[in-house]
Amino acid sequence: MKKLSLKVKLTLLYTFFMVLLTCAALTILFSLSSREMLSSVQARLTQRVQESIENIDLRGDEIRLDSDFYSVSHDVYLAMYNEGMYFMYGRLPHGFRAQPELSDGEMRTIRDGSREWYVYDMSCRLSDDLTVYVRGVTSVTDAEESFAVTVRLALILLPLMVLATALIGYRFTRRVLLPVRRITGTVKEIRSDADLSRRVGLTDADNGKAPVHRDEFYALAETFDGMLEELEEVFRREQQFTSDASHELRTPVSVILAQCDAMLSDESLTEEQRSQLALIRRKAAGMSDMISQLLFLSRADQGRQPIHRERLDLSELTEMIIEEQQMLADGSGRGIRIESRISPGVEADADETLYIRMVSNLLSNAVRYSHDGGKVEVILEERDGEVRGRVRDYGVGIAAEDLPRVWERFYRVDSSRTETSHSGLGLSMVRWIAHAHGGDVSVTSEAGKGSEFAFYFPAREENEKNKKSCFL
Question: What is the reported pTM?
Answer without folding.
Answer: 0.49
